[in-house]
Design a protein that fits this description.
Helices cover about 60% and strands about 10% of the residues. With about 160 residues, it is mostly helical. The model has no long low-confidence stretch (mean pLDDT about 90). Helix 1 packs across helix 3. It is globular, with a radius of gyration of 18 Å. A three-stranded antiparallel β-sheet has the order 1-3-2.
């Protein structure tokens, strides 16, 4: 499967990945401090029992944060290593990067897109698919990114389900 990102999309992805890495680093700090709170990237296994939930997170969150971080790095490494080229129709060429994804890297991208979408949804206050999130112009870019991530996820799932990888 070939994935093409225009330079503005690559810049947006880079910022989202940096936000994700910051969230993961904060989670590791919270785990070491014992101040873990509920977060969409780290769901509670025992929501009715705060002590059991805290213990669960202390046992699982470091590995989960490491896995998420490794996936984000793999995706960014793939796009960062891709040479820039002109892409699009002759009347509207834009700088872009193209990466050929094998099945393993495509699954890593799918997991990473899920993390980025959850992070963006949290920022927007989105709790379910029909929710539009916080109103206002200051959230317009985050809303656009949220929908772009969802469309990209859907296209990737269809490619994986259709055996294109």
């Amino acid at each position: 499967m070939t994935v093409v990102l225009t330079e503005p999309e690559f810049a947006a992805l880079t910022k989202l990945e940096a936000d994700l890495m910051g969230t993961l680093a904060q989670r590791l700090q919270d785990v070491s401090d014992g101040t873990v709170r509920e977060h969409p990237l780290f769901p509670d296994a025992y929501s009715a029992d705060p002590e059991a939930a805290r213990e669960f997170h202390s046992l699982t969150d470091v590995d989960l944060a490491g896995t998420k971080s490794d996936g984000a790095r793999r995706i960014m490494d793939a796009f960062s290593a891709a040479p820039r080229h002109d892409w699009g129709p002759p009347w509207r060429r834009v700088p872009a990067r193209t990466v050929e994804f094998d099945a393993e890297l495509a699954h890593a991208l799918l997991r990473n897109l899920t993390d980025l979408r959850l992070l963006t949804a949290e920022r927007l206050g989105i709790e379910h698919d029909e929710d539009l999130g916080r109103p206002g112009e200051e959230f317009a870019l985050d809303r656009a990114l949220y929908w772009w991530l969802g469309e990209t996820q859907e296209a990737l799932v269809q490619a994986l389900a259709g055996g294109l990888l």
